[in-house]
Amino acid sequence: MVTAGAGPDDRPASAWAPLRTAVYRNLWLALLAANIGTWMQTVGAQWLLIHHTNASTLVALVQTASLLPVLLLALPAGVLADTFDRRHLLIAVQLFLVAVAVTLTLLTLTDRMPPALLLTLTFAFGVGQALTLPAWAAVIPELVPSDQLRSASALGSISVNVARAVGPAVAGVLIARTGVAPVFGINAVAFGIFAYALWRWRPRNARAVEVPERFTAALRAGSRYVRHSPTVRRLLRRALVFVVPASALWALLPLVAARRLGLGSGGYGLLLAALGVGAITGGVLLAMIRTRLSANQLLLIAGVLFTVALTVVGTVRVVPLVLLALLPAGMAWVTVLANVNAEMQLFLPSWVRARGLAVYQVCFAGGQAVGALVWGLVADMAGLVLAYLAAAALMLVGTATSRLWPLPDLRSVNREPAAYWPQLHLAQEPDPGVGPVLVTVQYTVRPERAGSFLAAMDQVRGARQRTGAMRWGLFRPAETTDRFVEVYLVPSWDEHLRQHGGRLTGEDRAAEERAREFTDDEPEVRHLVPAAAGPTLSDDREEL
User: Fold this and answer.
1) HSE (CB half, 13 Å, CA atoms) of 507?
2) Using an 8 Å Cβ cutoff, are 413 and 12 in contact?
3) What is the pLDDT of residues 221-273, one digit of tens each?
4) Is the bond leading into 436 cis (omega within 30 degrees of zero)?
5) Where are the beta strands (DSSP E) in 272-372?
6) Which residues, 6+ apart, have CB-to-CB distance to 396 below 8 Å?
7) I need a surface site. Which of 10, 156, 189, 417 has the fewest CB within 10 A?
8) CA triplet 352, 241, 414: central angle to 5 degrees?
9) Which long-range contacts (CB under 8 A, 24 or more apart) does 108-114 make?
């Protein structure tokens, strides 16, 4: 689960502080039940396939089928979460998940569950999860005080990993005694509990968007923001270089349990429980560890620990040693993901938070889904040992890149909304849908200050492109030596009004103020709208 970023000071809040808020506590407990049900379903689905031909690939495809929808739908889901009532969206999706889980239960009870149908229903369940993740991530700041957001991020990881410890263990016992169908039935009940908790929640300040963004425009705006944000791209790279090799551990662990360690479903649940216990421990200790080590040092240590764990799990046949290796692997997993999640929440402004987190989830789930498939194929062709050793080598290489792509230090970055542009004084108010809109800003800059001005405007360019500009340029009239003209193209008048109304942040304001330190007069701004219907900008090219 992706939750929010840091609070206003650097002192870490207690890991349990958000649970003092009744609404958050109730939803957290309900989500914990849903997470437990999800892990039980995953174990049940994998165990139904363990004795089929090409089991390595089929078992790995369970993870691929559950995570691929996030890769395909996370960004549209983020648009929906940023546009519509998130509570209503979450309730509808949980009811859909209940229906899928009930279908799984009934078909398994009647022995009508071939591998293809199982993977199809797993994919449908993944669709519901893909729609849930961005909306839930964006809801967290509405539930807890801002100084507890980092603790809420740790609690999200604790919830997932408590479920990882409890769900597989319970599933293993149930499968051994009653079969797989009851496991799917419990999952249906768990998501019903989460839907009920969401229905009982009544937000104090109902979120309302006066004029919701059009879907396609919102989708492009989210993509544009990520494309022009070096910080977000850096965080996405850090997530990918960890998740792709780490996915081998999760995807192939059922085969390690059955083929190398000779364990049944209960033993497999025990292995997952060890991972979960390690992750819970890491989540509880993370706030304390952050006071002693930097985020980049934590990533380096976590990568080395996970490399060792992959090597041990892939080569050792002694159950106690494998269990011992899985404990620090769980700690490393939650350390990396909680840090990257928190940095994303800290950096993303509220207007694009769900969409930005959705892109993160695309990378996270896509890395797991593609990685699981690749490692499954490698295991089928070369064996489990070589698959794990290859993943360990890739993890070590990725860890070494922490010096090349370190996590950015965002403690001094102002990400609060800042509507600081002057009020528009227009002779005529354009229709919101009219576009594109060409905005020109003329600056007066003395020649000796031109170099410093140009350097400062590079940061302004990033702010314009992140918040709506499709194209941006800075020109100087050939007739003068002290004039510069900034030109940027926005898709519509509505998009430009959103720039005025809250898309900009304190960091963007600081960038503009630094650039204006090198100017002599107030900039002269002009807004050019299409003069007539039809094509506005022609791009005629002579054919050769």
Assistant:
1) 21
2) no
3) 888 888 888 888 988 988 899 999 999 998 888 888 888 888 876 787 788 77
4) yes
5) none
6) 303, 304, 307
7) 10
8) 35
9) 108/44, 108/48, 108/179, 108/180, 108/181, 108/184, 109/181, 113/48
